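Repro:
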Amino acid sequence: MPSEPAQRVEPGLVSRALEIAGRLANDAADVITDTAGRGARPAATESPFDWVTDTGRILERHTRRVLADEFPGIPVFGEEFDSSPGTTVAEQWAARSSSARFRWSVDPVDGTANYVAGLPWCAYSLAMLDEHGPVVGVVADPYRGQIYAAARGRGMRANGTPVRLSDQQETRAGIVCTELTRTGAWCGMDRFITNATAAQVGVRLLGSPALAIAQVALGHAMAAVLDSYEEWDVAGALALAAESGAAVLDRQGRHTALPSDGLLVAAPGVADNVLHWWSQSTGDRTSESTG
């Protein structure tokens, strides 16, 4: 069943958050396109699937400074300075959500390996959240010159143009996105790809969780499945997905605004099919109906 309606947030705060987040996203897009492909490489101790760049640190510090000035008292969490090895994602999220009524979550360069290689597929992602999930979300897609933005109850926009998903029912010839984990392929990924391709559905690993979810919100991909992720990877894009009309489900098929363990974002008419392929691939037979 769908999750309970989230509480309404003061409109002035939402409007100001959208304005500031949009400005930060535009700034970040310029920096990313100006500096990508400079030949940096991960240190020997860093995973090539999840590592840090100077650009990421600089953008996150800038984001933190601006948000501290504009929204004093609202904590900011980000990829470059808040990762906590040794704790589970659920534990980290619980600690953040209990710290204040609102919080910001930023991923300054989502798709770092692509960024370093100069591949035009990475993003800047920023969200303001409360206990119910994203309130405001902005994702910058620098190489396509797009800023995607959404706020709870106000819909999604791409460069100011409203976006709303159509009622897609057909899976054949569709595209599903997924991503590697920090250590590589997730358990069952090969079987998931086999299940999807058997249904004549293409699977893409593009290297940016935020942009993978954004493609669903935009109607380009019919679904995105993420087995492992951090809050800052997905929070901004989940705001887009929810406001475009996409279904947001956890690993068990439950509707939730911000899943902390397994994530499926899909056009509502195909969510059951994709959930079935995913459940089969991981051996999970407990998935519930998305209806």
